[in-house]
Design a protein that fits this description.
The protein is an alpha+beta fold and 505 residues long. It has 14 helices and 15 strands. The protein binds FE2/S2 (inorganic) cluster (FES). InterPro entries: DUF455, Ferritin-like_SF, Rieske_2Fe-2S, Rieske_2Fe-2S_sf.
Length: 505
């Protein structure tokens, strides 16, 4: 019997493409649950055999998306890929004595439309749950999915294989093995540091895919952020020497940018975005040893998404005879990473809830430009990127709220202020932006997609960053909209507008 409180997951039809899905729920008060939906029966419509369980193993936190499913006489169990503990899909119990949460699933016909719909029992630690992510899990072996990116859903775009893209003066081809022959990384954090130090864009993508797959399937069984001497991220990830890195103001801007220039700028952002996903794990994991495994699963998924985005854009660039690396790029996104390198709260606020949320605002306009140019293939790519980016802002929101909760617990424990201490996430976000951002949080806003990601207008409306402008030759560059003819100061001003330029604003 399902309890009265339940959550609509999706129409049954929408989950027949795969047999397992990553499912994320959010309550109206900002609680999150990361879950896995399993569909076990090939007889998908009459008896789909659906189960939902928590996405992380209660033993040491492995992701259960790639758990083996084994059937016994009267039960079905999910076997954790790390240490092979098994959990009954109905009861969540394991013979080891541990147990995980499972949720009853039902298929019901909608009384009005007659559509078959999948419902699940609602978690008890919140109300008004909604699905914020439902994405299929790739089940093939790593080397079978390396080109097609079956996770998330197979794209309508045929990716060009790496070997077809390489016939250019730009050395996109990986020159080293994906897994180094000497001292290969043993933990997930060692992989993070290696990938951040990998300048070759193709190798960065291949290593990301390998490391995430290895993490999910139990080839790597340690995150490695709690060790006494964790790997350190580089101050700024290196780039290939052939990349022409220039000041942001030197990048072609304005309304008349051609499609290749825009795609190249976006591919550059995706390369930095891969690095940002790895950097947040390896930089802040050791600083916050209480970060749960779900944090690493979420940002691993993000790193994989960004590498998929880069590959899709690179394939589009190749089709426009503009290989990645043939145009100048800038590194201004890393300026925000450097600025927020001391505080996880600041990093989540500025990179994921300001920069990435801004992407949600401007992506539809960018897609429209490509649509008007008749470039359907690029529109398809940008649509995939956009829907993934909503989930990335969701991830930023989830862990920002988690950090606020931790701060609240700490203050209650240490300050003796009892229940009076309340770390309000909206106030905390606005404080971070005032401290670490310059100028207005600019609209117009994509209110609908921001809301899907958890960002209600109270977070970002009428908000202005108050960070002072840097000193250049003893003067403050105080007004970003006015250039003073001073070359050094103008570069500072240009850097502030760089991200807007990349999106074609
Ligand atoms: S059995 Fe799952 S992490 Fe150990």
């Amino acid at each position: 019997m399902m309890s009265e409180s339940r959550v609509l997951i999706s129409p049954l039809q929408d989950i027949l493409s795969h047999s397992r899905f990553i499912l994320t729920l959010r309550s109206d008060t900002g609680n999150y649950h990361g879950l896995i939906l399993f569909r076990l029966s090939a007889d998908s419509t009459s008896n789909p055999q659906l189960y939902v369980m928590e996405a992380t193993c209660p033993h040491l936190g492995a992701e259960m998306s790639h758990a083996d499913i084994e059937e016994y006489e009267d039960s079905v169990v999910a076997v954790c890929p790390w240490h092979r503990y098994d959990f009954d899909l109905k009861t969540g119990k394991s013979e080891t004595g541990l147990s995980t949460c499972t949720y009853a699933v039902q298929v019901k016909s909608d009384s009005q439309s007659g559509e078959e719909q999948v419902w699940m029992a609602a978690p008890e630690d919140g109300k008004n749950w909604r699905v914020v992510e439902l994405r299929p899990v790739s089940e093939g072996p790593f080397f079978a999915v390396r080109i097609e990116f079956a996770d998330p859903p197979p794209s309508p775009i045929k990716l060009t294989s790496a070997s077809n893209v390489i016939a250019t003066p730009f050395a996109l081809e990986a020159t080293e093995p994906v897994v180094p022959e000497k001292d290969p990384p043993k933990t997930f954090m060692e992989w993070a540091a290696l990938i951040l130090n990998t300048p070759n864009p193709t190798l960065k993508v291949e290593r990301t895919r390998y490391a995430v797959h290895a993490f999910r399937t139990g080839i790597i069984t340690s995150i490695g952020h709690k060790v006494s001497d964790p790997p350190r991220p580089p101050p700024q990830p290196p780039r290939e020497t052939y990349m022409n890195i220039v000041e942001p103001g030197k990048i072609q801007s304005g309304k008349r940018k051609n499609r290749a220039v825009m795609l190249h700028a976006l591919a550059n952002i995706e390369q930095w975005a891969i690095d940002l996903a790895w950097d947040i794990m390896v930089r802040f994991g050791p600083m916050h040893k209480d970060l749960p495994p779900a944090f690493f699963s979420d940002f691993a998924k993000m790193a994989l998404d960004e590498s998929k985005h880069f590959s899709l854009l690179r394939a589009r660039l190749a089709s426009l005879s503009t290989p990645y690396g043939s145009l100048p790029v800038h590194a201004s996104l890393w300026d925000s990473a450097t600025l927020t390198s001391k505080s996880l709260l600041s990093r989540l606020a500025i990179i994921h809830l300001v920069h990435e949320a801004r992407g949600l605002d401007v992506n539809p306009k960018t897609m429209e430009k490509f649509r008007k140019a008749g470039d359907k293939e690029s529109v398809d790519v940008l649509e995939i990127i956009h829907s993934d980016e909503v989930t990335h802002v969701t991830t930023g929101h989830r862990w920002f709220l988690w950090m606020c909760e931790q701060q609240q617990k700490k203050m209650r424990g240490e300050g003796g202020e009892g229940g009076l201490v309340d770390v309000d996430p909206v106030k905390a976000f606005r404080d971070e932006v005032r401290r670490c951002w310059r100028g207005d949080i600019k609209g117009p806003f994509n209110i609908e997609d921001r809301e899907k990601a958890g960002l209600s207008p109270e977070f970002y409306e009428n908000l202005r960053g108050e960070m002072p402008y840097p000193e250049v030759d003893g003067r403050l560059a105080q007004n970003p909209s006015v250039k003073g003819g001073d070359e050094k100061m103008d570069r500072v001003v240009d850097a502030l507008a760089a991200v807007r330029v990349d999106y074609g604003e």
